[in-house]
Amino acid sequence: MDNHLSPGDKLPSERYLSEKLNISRSSVREALRAMELIGIISTKRGEGTFLSNMDDHQLFELIGSYLISSDKQINEITEFKKVIEHHLTETGSDNFIMTRVGNLLRHYERAFNEQEDTDV
What we know:
mainly alpha; two-stranded antiparallel ribbon; 5 helices; 2 strands; about 60% helix; about 5% strand
């Protein structure tokens, strides 16, 4: 898989992402729905899912709104900050999107599973 995606590029299938990132398909599906809701990707029935054209300003505005509008744990914000700082020091990393999305999905899946375990 080519880890460098440009606006308009088709994303791999849910099944492929699930296997590649070692997470459940339902987690991939939920993440894709969330990304579509906020405009990062778009889905065309019968064709697939495509990366939207977001400029840096739109992306930072989106991230800022997310952090301000929701009750975040300090460790989540700190972790998010580390990811952004790492990206800024690592300019030109073709693998950035897939690596970070995979890490984020694994993090939230673990948190969700731990929450389910404590609710039982």
